[in-house]
Amino acid sequence: MSEHIIKTDNFFMKISAEIDESDIDNPVNTILTVEVISCGFSAKAEFETDEKKLSEFSENLKSLYNTLDGSASICETYGYKRYVSFSANKRGIITACGFLCDEMRNNELKFENSFDQTYLESFASGLNYYL
Question: Mean pLDDT throughout 91-107?
Fold first, then answer.
């Protein structure tokens, strides 16, 4: 399981994925762990998704970085619909947003943070592993 990290002055995100190759046809064959610190608030959550959705997210994030157009999102298949999303503007500003919560939904974090596209390069490149 590899980790993919973005770290700016006021934002941190770490994503790791564990793909269950033995259950690849199941729509919940991947456990995604997402940790976020945004403007002093933090959350860590695991959610189930599909390897195909992770691959699509990786491809869209790479395209977003290269073209500064479009968006890249990944969402929980079932459950609380936890998600992470990235978008860009033509000036090179990337916006990361999302919703994370614990298993009982006692604690939740909705976040949005913007940063320069240069912070996205190694994160997007690292996620190419899932393509």
Answer: 92
